[in-house]
Amino acid sequence: MRRWAPWVVLVLAAGLVAALLAGTRSGERLAPDNPGREGGQALARVLQSQGVTVRTVLGTAALPEQVAPGTTVLVTGTAYLTPEAGAQLLDRTREADRLVVLVPGPQEDLGTALGLDVRTTWPTGARLTGACADPRVRDGDEVVAWDVQLDSTATSGAVACFPPSPGHNVGGARAGALLTFPATTDHAEVSLVGFSSALTNGRVTEAAHAALGLRLLGASPELLWVTPQPGDAGQGAPQGLWDVLPRSATPAVVLLGAAVLALALWQGRRLGPVVVEPLPAVVHAAQTTRSRGRLYRQAGDRPHALAALQAGARHRAAARLGLSPAADPGALVDAVATATGRPRDQASRLLTDPSATDDTDFVTTARELRSLEEGLHR
Fold first, then answer.
1. Selection from 224, 195, 301, 254 nearest residue 44 by Cα
2. Which of 30, 99, 192, 364 is the most exposed place for a label (fewest CB within 10 A)?
3. What are the tens digits of pLDDT across the range 173-201?
4. Which parts of the sequence belong to the DUF4350 domain (predicted)?
């Protein structure tokens, strides 16, 4: 080992230098010059071949003070989108044709950051269809890779496409993987895209992903492709080493770490085999589960357990019927009774009454509650 260690260090050092001298291709997710699976180079090149001028902008803070008309602005992530940064983004793009923001996952403060009525939740379902009046979405368009569901209660013309299930938005709900807000005096048309994964190099050729990307981004002569940067969040935002380190330098850092490790192995002494110290006691997972079950049974808190089941059932029923999660329980009971054909008193008891006299009554009520939910899916 000692004889070969200098050569190992030399090879790693050479690799480090090569990485530092490599090209400036970005490693950022969905960057237009990233040829990797998570990059956006494929979509950017097709847009350029169709005559769209694609310009890369490193961070929303680097946008022009006022983006000119005839321009679409794409922001490829929301990690650094604070309320201050969001307000600045909307102000600078006010005269643009449209602003497209890719939302890679649920984010509690997205609506606050952009000043829009929008909430994000984890996606449900694997294949979505357009089902909306947005002219950029055609009949038969499908998305098979999406990251977040977008919901809004706005009454000012917001359009939701690719809902979680067919007919979800028939009752007036606005939920889907694409949510568009019309232009106002305060901002340009804003499209929030919950299927950013569908636009990556690795998945853009699936389903209607490529066509949707071209329609969303190719309607204007110029496209400003914004890759968010840590500086967008402002000076007061906490940042770690990986936040400020350029992504293209990551391989160099890894190689440097490997070189330091090899040097330590070369110079250091072996510490001998690892000493295994047995724990005082080994508690198996199954034993833990059974013990907790006995505690719950001894407590006899059936109403609390049944109330938890009913809360989950109400949430799923509201989503199935296109109602708000905060809908009045009475209105939800009426809707469930109508949809399932059950008597209203029975639906109300199953959804809102957590009383259970004994274990048998608890199990019976839980089964009836499950049957009631299954009736909504028929």
1. 224
2. 364
3. 789 999 999 999 999 999 999 999 999 99
4. 32-217
